[in-house]
Structure formats: structure tokens, C-alpha cells
Write a structure and sequence with these properties.
The protein is mainly α. It is built from 12 helices and no strands. It has a single domain, classed as Mitochondrial carrier fold, CATH 1.50.40. Keywords: Membrane, Mitochondrion, Mitochondrion inner membrane, Repeat, Signal, Transmembrane, Transmembrane helix, Transport.
Amino acid sequence: MPKPHVRRRRRFLVAAALALGRCAASSTLSVAPQPVQPRKRLALEAAPYAVGCAVAGAISTCASHTVTLPLDVLKTKIQSDANLARLGAVGAVRAVVRSQGSRALFAGFTPNAAGYFMQGAIKFGLYECGKRIFTETLAKRRPDVDVDDPATRVGIWVASSACAEVVACLALCPMEATKIRMVTDPRYARTTLGALRRVVRENGVVSLWQGVAPIMVRQVPYTVAKLAGYEALSASLGSGGVLPGVVAGVGAAAVSQPGDVILTRICGGSAKARLSGQCALSMGDVLATLAHPTELFVGLQSRAAMCATVCAAQFFLYEALRPARPPPASS
């Protein structure tokens, strides 16, 4: 027969087990599922749409910039070679093909495709998220502001596109600088990987982002004019597509042309940069070498044609590939 203290211990353990069982049963029956916080629920609802927009943006941006690569190569060569600039677009094409072969018009193919694939995914994905975030934040903090007012919507489009492009530039910068080196100096490297290795070996990893400031000077105005302009034109015309894309592309080319000229001369268009193999000049150095402000618009004709084609193709593909409609901004 067990001793008294053993029996007491057993009774205590049995009572404790029964009490725990009753507590578990009652908590299982009484606890209702907790509602998801509104902000978290909206984020979960918006995630598939944002991912879909990022995928559509990556494909459309990569495809459009790949198709128009010869125009971009021609523009870069005209900006970096005064002799070609005097010949005009048609004469420059003939001179490049005659001296370097037709393959020269596709120089930088791989870094161009890789860079704009990443840039398109980040740009369009963050742009769509930014529009939602800015709209909800403004509606919450400033209830007196009508977020559907055209002027307010334009401001939201401008802020969203600028923020998205700043982040996208960080992904684009290494590939864009590599492409410019390969275009302006055909002997720089035979492959994209070889060009990247040479840049890192000669100048260090950080040099891949040395041109990020001039790239932003070009890309941020370009993207703001392109995306906000496309949204505004689509809203006024009642539909998007090719025509708003063409007009937005020409406008984006005009406002960003000075930044494009500066970027080209910093990363390959000057004798100092070619001899040193790096983006050695600053924006101030480039501006100091300009004989006249009109030099900031050298190559605008070919670039406007390229940007109009790029934007028309890009928005056509983007509208076809992205999710049908965004989730509601509030519920």
C-alpha cells in the first residue's frame, strides 16, 4: 500500500491534469479568431497586384529597350563623338556600320537587357505600391483633401514615380555604366562579364555605382514625365495604349536629355574617362566643357524617336500583361 505522501502527490497530479484539461477546453471554445489588422489586410490584398505589375514591368521594359537598342547605341555614339554628331542620324549610322560593322549597333546587348529587366520590375512595382500608399496616407492625414481631384492625382503620380525610380536606379546603374563603356569603346571587353570584371579590377566594386548621381539626373525626370504623363494622357483620353505612350515618351526624352548627355560624357564620352577607364569626371567637369547650352540637347532627335518607340511598346505590353485592376484602396 502506497505511503500517505505518495497518495497525496498522486491526487494533486490528477487534479492538476483535470484542471488543465478544463482550461484548454474552455479556451478552445471561447477564443474567436482575431481579425487581421486593416493595414496588414490591405497589404496582403495589394501584394499579388504589385507582384503582377512588377513582372509586367520587367518584361515590357526589357523587351522595349532591347528592340530599340540600335537607336540607343547610335544616340550614345553621337553624344560621345563630335565627328559623328556633325553627320546627322543617317550619316552616323552609315559611318558606324562602315567602320565597325552592323554588330556595333547592338553593343551592350546583355547589360542593356539585364539592367532594364531589373529596373522595370522595381520601377513599376514600387510605382503601383507608391500610388496606393500616398493615396491612403493623404486621405488619412488630410481628410479635407479630395484624393480624386486631378491636381492631387498628378501630385501622387509624380511623387510615386520619383520615389520608385530612385530605387530602380540603384539596380540599373552598374549595367548602364557597363553598357556605355562597351558602346563608346568597342575594345573595352568582349563580354558583359568581362567588362564587369575589368571595372571591378581597375576601379573597385564601388565604381559600379559611381555614375548613380548622373543616372538619377537622367532617369528620375524621364520616369516622372513618362509615368505621370502617361497617366494624365490616359485619363484625359479615356484609355491608355500606344498614343499616350508615344506622347509621353517624346516629353520624357525632352526633359531628361541634359541628364542623358551628362551621363554619356561622364562614363565614356571624354578623353579623360577613356584613358583612365573609369567615370572620372564629375557633372561640374562636364558642364564646364560645354561651349553652349544647346550641347545638352545633342542627339535629342534620335533619342526622342527611341523614347517614343520604347514607351509605346512598353505601355502596350504593360497594359496587356499587368493584372486587370488594382484592389480597392480602402474597405
